[in-house]
């Protein structure tokens, strides 16, 4: 099991990262909550990781905090929630808001996450109620400093990231049209688009 990675951030194309650890490049998928706090490319980074083994792939997921990873681990135990949906949940709702949704049985907010229908949202409320109690910490803590440099084509990267998170292309186009034109970075575009989707 790979518990964490510490190395140089080589590339970031939401939701994928490439981290050079002693000359070995690890491809890592991360939620947007982790992307928001990543340092610039070329800087050292530490990620808590979870290796998910499937019949057709071994995928390494990376998180900026132990709490995010613990929540991911509990989410993928829920029937009907795989790693992709868990990643979408962590990208669209922060850990504290997710906990509030579960405690208040706010199914409507959960169904705004791509890939989550009403039945899955209801299952999440039921199954996660007790599991949240065992997750350490009170919130997601940024751990690595300022966001990286502006991407060459932030809108295209934001579009690709949102599609990778499960949003339909037409919906992504609509969301990005509502993002303030003053927003220049990929991470900020995605953050604003996810706020629009949640609203």
Topology:
Elements (H helix, E strand, L loop, with lengths): L3 E10 L2 E6 L2 E6 L2 H4 L8 E10 L4 E6 L2 H10 L7 H10 L2 H9 L3 H4 L7 H14 L22 H11 L4 H9 L8 H13 L1
Helix pairs in contact: 2-3, 4-6, 7-8, 7-9
Give me the count of strands. Answer: 5
CATH superfamily of the largest domain: 5' to 3' exonuclease, C-terminal subdomain
Helix-strand topology string = EEEHEEHHHHHHHH
Strand order of the largest sheet: 3-2-1-4-5
For this structure, what is the CATH class of the largest domain?
Mainly Alpha
Describe the 3D structure.
There is one protein chain. By secondary structure, the chain is an alpha+beta fold. The protein folds into 3 domains: 4-63, Nucleic acid-binding proteins (OB fold (Dihydrolipoamide Acetyltransferase, E2P)); 66-134, DNA polymerase, domain 1 (Orthogonal Bundle); 154-198, Helicase, Ruva Protein, domain 3, CATH 1.10.8. Helix content is 42%, strand content 19%. The protein is built from 9 helices and 5 strands. A 5-stranded antiparallel sheet has the order 3-2-1-4-5. A hairpin with a 2-residue loop joins strand 2 (16-21) and strand 3. Helix 7 crosses helix 9.
């Amino acid at each position: 099991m790979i518990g964490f990675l510490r190395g140089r951030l080589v590339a970031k194309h939401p939701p994928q990262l490439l981290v050079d650890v002693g000359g070995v490049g690890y491809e890592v998928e991360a939620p947007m909550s982790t992307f928001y706090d990543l340092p610039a490319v070329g800087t050292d980074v530490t990620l808590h990781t979870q290796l998910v083994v499937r019949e057709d792939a071994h995928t390494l997921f990376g998180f900026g905090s132990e709490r995010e990873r613990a929540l991911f681990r509990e989410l993928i135990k829920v029937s009907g929630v795989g790693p992709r949906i868990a990643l979408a949940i962590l990208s669209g709702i922060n850990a504290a808001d997710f906990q509030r949704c579960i405690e208040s049985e706010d199914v409507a907010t959960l169904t705004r996450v791509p890939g989550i229908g009403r039945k899955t949202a209801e299952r999440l409320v039921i199954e996660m109620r007790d599991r949240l109690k065992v997750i350490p910490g009170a919130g997601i803590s940024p751990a690595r400093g300022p966001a990286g440099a502006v991407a060459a084509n932030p809108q295209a990267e934001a579009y690709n990231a949102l599609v990778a998170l499960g949003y339909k292309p037409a919906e992504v186009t609509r969301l990005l049209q509502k993002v303030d034109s003053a927003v220049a970075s990929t991470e900020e575009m995605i953050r604003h688009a996810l706020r629009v989707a949640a609203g």
